[in-house]
Amino acid sequence: MSFLVDSIIMFTSQVLFFGFGWLFFMRQLFKDYEVRQYIVQVVFSITFAFSCTMFELIIFEILGALSSNSRYFHWKLNLYVILLVLIFVVPFYIGYFVVSNIRLLQRQKLLFACMVWFTFMYFFWKLGDPFPILSPKHGILSIEQLISRVGVIGVTLMALLSGFGAVNCPYTYMSYFLRNVTDSDILALERRLLQTMDMIVSKKKRIAMTRRQMYQRGEDQNKQTGLWGMIKSVTSTQTGSENLSLIQQEVDALEELSRQLFLETVELQATKERIEYSKTFQGKYFNFLGYFFSIYCVWKIFMATINIVFDRVGKTDPVTRGIEITVNYLGIQFDFFYAISSNKSSNVIVLVLAQIMGMYFVSSVLLMRMSMPLEYRSIVTEVLGELQFNFYHRWFDVIFLVSALSSILFLYLAHKQAPEKQMAL
Amino acid sequence: MASLDRVKVLVLGDSGVGKSSLVHLLCQNQVLGNPSWTVGCSVDVRVQDYKEGTPEEKTYYIELWDVGGSLGSASSIKSTRAVFYNSVNGIMLVHDLTNKKSSQNLYRWSLEALSKDSSPTRVIVSNGDYDREQFAENSVPLLLIGTKFDQIAETKRTEVLTRTAFLSEDFNAEEINLDCTNPRYLAAGTSNAVKLSRFFDKNKQVRKGQHSTVTQRHSSIHNFLNPGKKGTDFDEDVWIFGIVAITFHGKSCQTL
Question: Which keywords are on file for this protein (chain B) (predicted)?
Answer without folding.
Answer: GTP-binding, Nucleotide-binding
